[in-house]
Design goal:
The complex is a heterotrimer of chains A (352), B (316) and C (301). With 316 residues, chain B is an alpha/beta fold. Chain B has 10 helices and 13 strands. At the A-B interface, helix 8, helix 9, helix 10 and helix 11 of A face helix 6, helix 7 and helix 9 of B. Chain C: This is ABC transporter permease.
């Protein structure tokens, strides 16, 4: 299986009034078709910026995006212009954001908004897919609404966004994303604004759609529960870098980085009888990044070197990944390696 | 048993004014007969989804809203007049959800904390600043922070200031209205452990209002599950968590299982919370309940059971 | 490359308490740091001083005619030149400053007193009172200013008094609306709820928690109202509804200047400059004042 998104050494810098701010530092990511990648981290860790930079969503005037490699669906994106991006985003890449209200035009019915996306897709694909168009747009709208689980689509399509509940609106946004028949879906905190029962409904829907259509999906969330339910692979971000990456099984069952360990042990459901242990301190702000490993001021395992030099990635070979990967690969039809990587001095060979 | 407070059939309706053009007056039924009580030193968790009335109930306790009907008793005193409601702040204090909005941006921490002290009649400036010093240390902030403005703090620190403000007038119960939902995960736990420590130190009671069942479970001695302005189930934490009886509680608990890779999502209650503009005739959850029967649509099941566990469902 | 030392546990850093102490510049320092605001303040001060003592320093009076020296350009004896009747323009511009600034400050005072109180009461009480009070504002808004003035001229004689009364009727409406909408917004803020839940009285809530947080919009509206009032006066005088001859306001001077603009442009230039510079001064000063009074702006270093 080939990668549909591949980024190496991504740096994103904003120029602000107080000087340049490095929002994302040396991030490498890849996404295969049919795979769900989760990016998890606290607010301000750069998870949204990473994905938005990967999709060319930042104005170049105040932002510098640099990458050693940056390919999306086979295109080299490093020299992309804004119009190249727009072509790609409208069709092959679709996005689902946190707040469905801002993603929908409040004065146009949802049916009309869906039609617009479908027309746009047909226009763009006309050149390479002759004859595959001009099927009934109205039927497709109904089909899409039904696909995302909206009851009575014939009536609903004539409604305006404000007439729908939050969960329904998010379903409409997902339908709009699907209308372009995308190959990649980016979901940025898609369920954060929703209640738990609605959240679960939306997650079920996303999972079903991605599996059925064979799309790749990147889902950003601060909520480990969402990530655990949905993802095949997960990248944990802290202060602008990926500190740990691996399959969801390895990352959740044998976390390596002290930050992730702390995060997992601070979940109330994991404190069955004992007390919760909190990670002390707070994430650094991007104007005052600590030297060395960004987590060292909060880390209880910090060594002197952590404060001096930023650790590089190392592979962790834990028991779990050896034993169960084979079985796991069989179960989920994953045909490729999914190394468990962590950037922490504790796992560097030099330490031993 | 002596309770700090006790409510009996509290209801609250909000009328949206009908203007000249907007047509008829609408009524939102926010609370539909809430009967709860709390023992000293305990934490009562109130859990439910947005719009279930949990925050409204907190504000009724605080005296910010007058209930439409029903009674609130604090100790042995019946709170039934506006004058009586004005005294509720001696018993209750509140910690709000949004640490960015709940502090006056033009007042330093010292000014914010001095206000309740002044109202309590602490006249000497030295006594006040000594008390402020003590309370800041208690919530894990440096006393030197007292001259700072709210925007100079992070979200977690602001929430600590909010807790200090609630604590400084020595209430017997703090109503925490979603105190952690605006914070990052690692900061949430810091606040939770702080609340926990304060309770061990001062034997204060909390009403902990949240949509996050796992946090509620961790902190609470008793839990009340609310849905559409009704309490559908109430009991001690262990009993409620280990033997949930109401289908809605069961669904919530299923959705809050310990994290595991690829944990299954379903089954999920279908549909959505009905509009609070109409009072349902039967059980409020009937429209989404997988086990509903004829009688569920006919009449509302009363909250029945014993002191340990009460549920409002026809089938239990 | 790495020494053994490197892998020893990191000593927990001792936080330097003094480093945590912040010295925050007060509003005055922050105002001083803002160059435009200082410039605006200087302009406003110079205008006020000039308006008060300026006419005394001139050997002429505003009404003194000398037809022999009519339409002279700027010179050592007449700094700004003279007008068609040979009156000293410098004296007349400074005298006009008195009238224009007086109009400006009266407008600001009306704004502050009537506008803030009216809007504050309407917003804080809400409900039926609010609706009634705001309907009155809406009705007053609907009547054009010119109509008031013309009607007033019928009742009173044209002159400063009727201008003041006209401003008094019309100039607090915007302020009342802005204060009301601010208060309605702030009333629902959690910190106001928090103050109420701690048993604060309505007066404390209004004056300690709500009004201070409206200061920004209030100051902006006020500083914008001053130049606007000066401009209105100039406009009314310009079309002949303002102060009576031989009294001079900037508007009167500009109107006279227009008539002879082709041949003696300086007769228009000086009053126009005075109007323009004063308005800029108030705008800069007002903007600087607003950010200086807001603790959220300005560095914390």
């Amino acid at each position: 299986m080939s990668d549909i998104v591949r980024v190496k050494g991504l740096h994103v810098t904003f120029s602000t009034f107080n000087g340049p701010v490095q929002a994302v530092r040396d991030v490498s990511l890849r996404l295969a078709a049919g795979e769900i990648l989760g990016i998890v981290g606290e607010s301000g860790c750069g998870k949204s910026v990473t994905v938005q930079a990967m999709m060319g969503l930042w104005p170049t005037a105040i932002t510098t995006v640099e990458a050693a490699e940056h390919t999306v669906l086979g295109h080299d994106c490093r020299s992309f212009t804004e119009s190249d991006w727009r072509t790609l985003r409208g069709t092959d890449i679709a996005m689902v954001f946190q707040d469905p209200m801002t993603a929908l035009n409040p004065i146009v019915t949802i049916g009309k908004q869906l039609e617009e996306v479908i027309r746009l897709r047909q226009k763009r694909r006309r050149s390479d897919q002759k004859g595959a168009m001009t099927e009934g747009i109205a039927e497709e709208v109904i089909h899409l609404l039904r696909q995302v689980g909206i009851p009575e689509p014939e009536r609903r399509r004539n409604q305006y966004p404000h007439e729908l509940s939050g969960g329904m609106r998010q379903r409409v946004v997902i339908a709009m994303a699907l209308a372009g028949k995308p190959k990649i879906i980016l979901a940025d905190e898609p369920t954060t604004a929703l209640d738990v029962t609605t959240e679960a409904q939306i997650l079920l829907l996303l999972q079903k759609l991605v599996r059925e259509e064979g799309m790749g999906m990147i889902i950003i969330s601060h909520n480990l529960r969402v990530i655990a339910r949905l993802c095949d692979r997960v990248a944990v971000m802290y202060a602008g870098t990926i500190i740990e990456e691996g399959s969801i099984e390895t990352v959740l069952t044998s976390p390596a980085h002290p930050y992730l360990q702390g995060l997992l042990s601070s979940l109330p459901e994991s404190a069955t009888d004992g007390r919760l242990t909190a990670i002390e301190g707070q994430p650094p702000d991007s104007y005052h990044m600590p030297t060395g490993c960004a987590f060292h001021p909060r880390c209880h395992k910090a060594m002197r070197i952590c404060a001096r030099i930023t650790p590089t990635n190392s592979n962790v070979s834990d028991e779990y990944s050896k034993r169960e990967r084979v079985q796991h690969v069989r179960e989920h039809q994953q045909t490729r390696e999914c190394p468990h990587q962590v950037s922490c001095w504790l796992y560097r060979p030099e330490v031993k | 048993m002596d309770y700090i407070w006790q409510t009996e059939g509290i209801t609250k309706e909000f009328n949206t004014p009908g203007g000249i053009f907007s047509g008829k007056e609408k009524t939102v039924y926010a609370l539909n007969g809430i009967s709860l009580q709390q023992a000293p030193g305990e934490t009562l968790g109130i859990v439910g989804e947005s719009g279930c009335g949990k925050s409204t109930f907190g504000r009724v306790l605080m005296g910010l809203y007058a209930p439409t009907s029903g009674t609130l008793r604090v100790g042995n005193q019946l709170i039934d007049t506006e004058t009586a409601r004005k005294t509720l702040h001696h018993t209750f204090q509140m910690v709000f959800q949004d640490p960015y909005a709940s502090l006056n941006p033009r007042m330093t921490v010292r000014q914010t904390l001095e206000e309740p002290l002044r109202r309590m009649g602490v006249k000497e400036a030295t006594v006040r600043s000594e008390r402020i010093r003590g309370i800041l240390e208690q919530v894990g902030l440096r006393p030197s922070y007292s001259e700072r403005y709210p925007h100079e703090f992070s979200g977690g620190q602001r929430q600590r200031v909010g807790i200090a403000r609630a604590l400084i007038s020595n209430p017997s119960c703090i109503i925490c209205d979603e105190p952690i939902s605006a914070l990052d995960v690692s900061i949430q736990v810091q606040i939770i452990t702080l609340l926990e420590r304060l309770q061990t130190d001062t034997n204060i009671s909390y009403v902990f209002i949240s949509h996050d069942l796992s946090m509620v479970r961790y902190l609470s001695h008793r839990i009340a599950v609310m849905y559409l302005g009704y309490v559908v189930e109430e009991g001690t934490t262990d009993e409620l968590y280990n033997h949930p009886l109401h289908p809605y509680t069961q669904a919530l608990i299923r959705l809050h299982q310990p994290i595991a890779p690829r944990m299954p999502i379903g089954p999920v209650p279908q549909g959505e919370v009905p509009s609070p503009l109409q009072k349902p005739k039967g059980c409020p959850f009937a429209s989404r309940c997988p086990e509903k029967e004829e009688r569920c649509m006919e009449a509302w099941p009363q909250l029945t059971g014993n002191d340990v566990h009460r549920v409002a469902c026809w089938k239990r | 490359m790495y020494s053994k030392e490197d892998f020893l546990p990191l000593q927990p850093m001792r936080c330097d308490e003094s480093a945590e102490l912040i010295t925050r510049p007060g509003p005055w320092q922050r105002l001083k740091a803002n160059k435009l605001a200082v410039l605006g303040m200087i302009i406003v001060c110079i205008m006020i001083v000039a308006a008060i003592i300026g006419p005394w320093l001139s050997p002429y009076t505003y009404a003194q005619q000398n037809l022999l020296e009519a339409n002279q350009g700027p010179s050592a004896s007449h700094w700004f030149g003279t007008d068609t009747l040979g009156r000293d323009l410098y004296t007349r511009v400074l005298y006009g400053a008195r009238i224009s600034l007086a109009v400006g400050f009266v407008a600001a005072a009306i704004n502050l007193v009537i506008g803030v109180v009216y809007g504050g009461v309407a917003g804080y009480l809400g409900g039926r009172v609010d609706r009634l009070m705001m309907s009155i504002v809406d009705i007053l808004y609907g009547i054009p200013l010119l109509l008031y003035v013309i009607l007033l001229m019928v009742v009173l004689s044209p002159g400063l008094t009727s201008i003041f009364i006209a401003l008094g009727i019309a100039y607090w409406l915007t302020m009342a609306r802005i204060v009301r909408s601010q208060i309605i917004k702030l009333k629902e803020e959690e910190y106001v709820l928090a103050a109420r839940s701690m048993g604060a009285s309505p007066m404390t809530v209004l004056f300690r928690h709500i009004l201070p947080n409206c200061m920004g919009p209030i100051i902006i509206t006020m500083t914008l109202a001053i130049p606007e009032a000066i401009f209105t006066e100039a406009f009314l005088s310009f079309i002949g509804l303002g102060v009576n001859a031989p009294m001079a306001s900037w508007g009167v001077l500009a109107a006279e200047g227009i008539n002879s603009m082709r041949s003696y442009p300086y007769q228009l230039l000086f009053p126009a400059l005075a109007i323009g510079i004063t308005m800029l001064g108030f705008t800069f000063f007002g903007d600087g004042l607003r950010s200086a009074l807001d603790p959220k702006e300005g560095g914390t270093k």
